[in-house]
Each structure stands twice: as C-alpha cells, then as structure tokens.
Amino acid sequence: MKLTSQEKLALAMTSAGSMRNLAALIGVSHQKIGRWLREGETGGAKSIPTDKATRAAIDLAFTIHKDISKEQAAIENLPFIEKTPIFPVTKPRRDGKPSDRMFVPETPFIRGETRVKIMEGAARTKKFMSVTVESEIQAQSYLEELADKEIAAGKYKGKTKKWIVRHLKKVLTKSGVIGDTETLKLYTKRQPLGPIWVDGKPRWDDPYQAAVAVEDEIQRRHAPSANQPGGTLASTFIFQLAPKLTTQRGNTNAKPKARKAKWTNKRGK
C-alpha cells in the first residue's frame, strides 16, 4: 500500500508533536508544513511539490517517524501497525496497573480514508478490543446546534433561541457535560475490534467494515460541529487493548525519551 506525501506528513505529526518539529526535520517553514498538511483544502497548498528534493525530505521524515513509532511500541510492548505507523502513547492508571488503552494524539490532519486504513490495520493485529475517536468542538457552536434540534422537535415553545442556549448551558454545566473550557470533547461509540465468541470459538468481523462504521459516525456526528471555528475533527484515537496483552505488558520502568530528543537523536545531532 503506497502512501501519499500528505498521508506520510499527517502520520509523522503523531510523533513530531508539532508542525515546527516536523518542519525543522524537513527543512521548510512550519507555515509551509501547515499548507502541505491541508493539501487540496481551503487555506492549504493546491498540491505538495513532487520534485526529487521535496519527496526525499518527506520520505526521510516518514522513515524516522516509522522508526521512532516502532521503537516506542516496543518499549511499551504495544502492537505496531506497519502499513500505517502511528506513534502510541499510554497514560498511567490511578491504581498503578498497566494502561489498558493506547492513545494516538496529534491526528487532526489524518483524513478519512487514512483513518479507515489505521483502524483496519489495528483490527487485523487481533490485539485490540475496540476503538473510539475523540473530536473537539467549540462549546457555543454545540449549544446552538443542540438548541436548533430542540426547536425543530417542538420544545421550548415561545422561547427565543438565545434563551434556550443559556438554559441548555446551565443544565449541561450542572450535569457535568460542559465545564469551564470553551471546547467540549465528543467521542464516537466504542467500536468492537476484538473477537465475537461463537460456539466457544473467536470470530472476527470484517475489519474494514468496523473501521468504516467509525468513520461514518465521525462524519455524521462530529464533523458538523468540529469543522466549525475552534473545533478539531478526530484529534485523538483511543484503542482498547486486549486483556491478555494488558496483563503481559506488566509494570515497566522503561521511559521513552522526549519526542523532540528522539527526533534529534535520529538525525545524529
């Protein structure tokens, strides 16, 4: 499976952590990296240059990213997705037990088709139980969208949209759905990736269809709000590890180097 330059850059962002880090490795400005990541979109480059030097720089960055991601997965004893390498992150649990989830941050530039490839690849390892994708939305946009739905359903008759938005904000704040921040987090439903037991034997459903189901929800439920100013679509992937793998991981004292240091060291500086 051949990846495009945009796909390589978007995947490399998961280990680089920022456009500046990625730009420094490739030897261009972070503004240019931003336009390349948005290739073909509003505000992005019409197309990423295809000259030999640019392709070589992007390929080098992607190779380094792949090596770093594979090393990180080995340190954490996590599955590595060879065809669509992503940088895995785990977060310690409060009870001190090994983390049972694998996070992939810095994913907003990964597009729908590539997201499907990542989730399909993860499912094919047969080492993940499920996946969910997080998006961030601007709280005010969410409240206004919710108010429109309530009005369309015939609720709060005689009340203005402004009043309904204020009311919903009070209700959702009290229930803990909304905090003091200007953004909210939305999550897709947990999509099973692990086996379904039939007659005492494990059976895996079609990995591609499972991945498409998640992407469909991202487009239907997240995109309308997350694509508004202040929102971020599909900002983080969260994979649930299989129980057996979680047990095997154990408590490790191995700590990965800082992202920036790992990138610098790979460059031999």
What would your notes on this structure say?
- The protein has 10 helices and 7 strands.
- With 269 residues, it is α+β, with helices and mostly antiparallel strands.
- The chain has 2 domains: 1-77 and 253-269, no CATH class; 84-139 and 179-251.
- A hairpin with a 2-residue loop joins β5 and β6.
- It is globular and about 65 Å long.
Question: What's a quick, concise take on this entry?
Answer:
The chain is 48% helix and 14% strand. The chain is built from ten helices and seven strands.
Question: Which terms would index this structure?
Answer:
single chain, 269 residues, alpha+beta, 2 domains, five-stranded antiparallel β-sheet, two-stranded antiparallel ribbon, 10 helices, 48% helix, disordered C terminus
Structural class: alpha+beta
H-E string: HHHHEHEHHEEEEHEHH
Helix content: 40-55%
What's the domain count?
2
Outline the biggest β-sheet. 5 strands, antiparallel
Which band does the percent of strand residues land in?
Answer: 5-15%
**Global morphology:** globular
**CA radius of gyration:** 21 Å
Strand segment count:
7
- Low-pLDDT parts are 251-261, 264-269
Tell me the number of helical segments per DSSP (H or I, 4 or more residues long): 10
Mean pLDDT across all amino acids: 86
Distance between the termini: 32 Å
